[in-house]
Amino acid sequence: MKTQPLHIEQGIKSNVLIIVPAYNEASGIRNTIASIKEHAPYADLVVVNDGSMDNTGSIAEMQGVPVLNLSCNLGIGGAVQAGYRYAEENDYTYAVQIDGDGQHNPADLSYLLQAMRENEVDMVVGSRFIEKRGFQSTFTRKLGIGLLANLVSALTGQRITDPTSGYRLCSRKAISLFSREYPTDYPEVEALVLLDNYRGKFMEVPVVMSERDGGVSSISAFKSCYYMIKVTLAVLITKSKKKREWSLGYGN
After folding, report:
1. Where are the beta strands (DSSP E) in 55-206?
2. 205 phi and psi, to 5 degrees?
3. What is the pLDDT of residues 33-82, one digit of tens each?
4. What is the DSSP letter of 134?
5. Domain limits of the chain?
6. Any idea which fold 16-239 has?
7. Burial letters for 79-115: b for 16+ Cβ neighbours within 10 Å, e otherwise?
């Protein structure tokens, strides 16, 4: 996939915000921030320190980036929503989630931006399974992700291959929606259905992901079955709600 490089004049506020949710990511957050600055210098950055028990927040602050230090651990849903609220309050046009564990390559952000601008969708998800390059997760998790992908695709009528991917770019409309209403716990899958409920459109682009650079995944092997049951029920409950319009203060 080819794209033109993005540029922003020095000293001018970017219209792109990178949200980095981080919980106990002290071992990798410095490298994540450095990689973002190197490969996506056109974007602004905020780290959401989700009540970490290590020095994730102070390490991020030493890198000279804004840090939202949450007073307690809200989980990935609460941390990401805090980032969306920050994006809306500061009038960003685009907001992208890049996890603090080093799995996501900031160099791929230009592909997500290009896809959103060319296809006029509300969310672009970076999928590791389209070209099947880089880290592909374990067999068990791939099986579970495949089942969830089929479920979400069937319920929304929009094809998705990597519904658990946290690498996702949102438009201003989606930012406005998610700043007010966002799933908790393990929100990535449910958020796709929520977006569809508001008649929003999403699509995927291929990205290359890496293994975690330290830290611990929020989904352990012991929680996998519970996760699948919980997410499936949450998705079905969300889908049972009536379609809604972008009105009610969500977006323009």
Report:
1. 67-69, 94-97, 123-127, 168-170, 202-206
2. -130, 150
3. 999 999 999 999 999 999 999 999 999 999 999 999 999 999 999 999 99
4. B
5. 16-239
6. Spore Coat Polysaccharide Biosynthesis Protein SpsA; Chain A (3.90.550)
7. bbbbbbbbbbeeebebbbbbbbbbbbbbebbbbbbbb
